[in-house]
Amino acid sequence: MTFPISVCFCLQVVTEYEEPVIMRFGHVRKNVSRGPDSLTKVDMRTKALELPFQEIFTKDPLIIDVDGVVYYRVQDAFLAVTKISDADAATSLLAKAIMKNTLGSQTLSHLISDREKVAKEIQALLDNITADWGVTIEHVEIKNVKTRVNVVSPGNVIPPPRAAKELSLFLQDSPVSIQLRCLKADSAHPSPRLSTIVFL
């Protein structure tokens, strides 16, 4: 009597861009036959993961805000279901952490001049971990790099006994940081007129 209605709950449609992972009593079934099976559909399409602006302390040391995007897709549906509870959420959290750690070890000048090289380094680190989850990283893009006028106090980053020497080496490797420090010194003496300074 309930066949016309119950059949809608018994049948599941797998689209062309999805791959089914069928399990029976907790075990994956490769050869499907009759029985109480559970089906998990895995989206095999490429997904875009937006990485919002993050506050990053560079090696200079400076404070910058960086955002980006990661393109990834599930390569192995079986691993994406059995090795990780939520592949999308795990990839998102891992991408944010690796991006922040990698950019934090770079100087601002190197980040700006070799942006593609740094992005490929992030991609390799990500792909090395997500491969165990059946996820492959196709591309990483660093979109915007915004530099703040505020400069990290050297005493908070470099040990006091070697602060002057190491800070001079940082400034020598990154001319941009010298300009920003001069700008900070000028901003310490406020002017009655408001002005906007743009770095090109």
TrEMBL record:
Pfam families xref list: Band_7
SUPFAM superfamilies: Band 7/SPFH domain
Domain of life, source organism: Eukaryota
Chain ranges passing through the membrane: none
GO cellular component, as recorded: cytoplasmic side of plasma membrane
Positions of the Band domain: 9-153
UniProt-listed InterPro entries: Band-7_stomatin-like (IPR043202), Band_7 (IPR001107), Band_7/SPFH_dom_sf (IPR036013), Stomatin_HflK_fam (IPR001972)
Cited function: Plays a role in the regulation of glomerular permeability, acting probably as a linker between the plasma membrane and the cytoskeleton.
PANTHER family linked: BAND 7 PROTEIN-RELATED (PTHR10264), STOMATIN (PTHR10264:SF115)
Similarity annotation: Belongs to the band 7/mec-2 family.
Name the record gives this protein: Podocin
